Fold this protein.
Amino acid sequence: MNFSRPSTIQEKSITILNDEKKDLIAQSQNGAGKTVAFIVPMLLHVNPQIQSPQIICICPTRELVMQNYDVFSKLNSHLNFTSGICLKDHDHPSKNSQILFGTAASIVFQINSKVITDLSKINFIVFDEADAILSKSSAHIKHVNALIEKVPNDVQYAYFSATFSNASLELIKKTSPNAISIRLKQKEECPPSIQHWYTVVTDKSEGMNVVVELVKNVRRGKTLIFIRNKKKIDFLCDFLKANKIQCEKFSSELSKDECENAFNAFKSNKVNVLVTTDMLSRGIDIPNISIVINFQVPTKPTISFSKQAKGKDKKKKDKKNLPDIDTYLHRAGRVGRFGRFGICFTVAIDNQ
């Protein structure tokens, strides 16, 4: 696979997870080789004599499950361990699958449906993009808790991501209080190979014109455009096509087949522009993306309670959307991978 030596995160993670057999919280920059850093230990944890599930890799999205499984398949080509994928509308894994990949919800569904029947030999569970899975607001957390209750108490855990919030770390510490932690300083979280640019426009119409100019004049490879409102994807795609820019769209509003077709067309260079939501902001590795465009600053909702409110009025609260630094870092991380040059350009709309 053209690896000549391990990256820093690979060297540290494989040693801790395989030799020391410790739980691990591993943070590293996007594009630093986290996938291989946890798949190698997964392979090293398999007992070939046991024909039942031993290792689980949990991912937040279908696309990341399939990407990780593809890397695993290449590394497993000479080992031939049995494996399976747990996803909705996908072939069920066999009962003797030694390694399982899936979303938390799909894995628990397969267990409850008796597709997966023997969890007694599970010894290692990996969370890829752990902070997206293990947060209080995450839709995954209830399924993760259900899974943890069903596996042996001495399971080893590994948590990988480019960012970790304090809230996600608190939840991780409840399951793995003695985990070894590899963390980055905040100034180290974004690779130096990425240039960051922005412009401020007065309205969405002006912003879309900026996007057109960027796609036509800056692009040297693929362009990935992030939009924070999935309902506006059609509008932006239609505008690009009206300006003679061929593109595809990807969001939860589309069917599974439509998403797969768009994603595959982008990966295979049939189209060089993909407009998406944050479904593709984490972990996805597509070669030759040269520019990421944020159409509006990524934000997250926050709730503040009025200090003046009393009694029943204490329930009154103000909702504000603040810039989401972690989401920005993950979006930007779709370029500049493995030291390649990339541009992240944000089109900020004034007062929005």
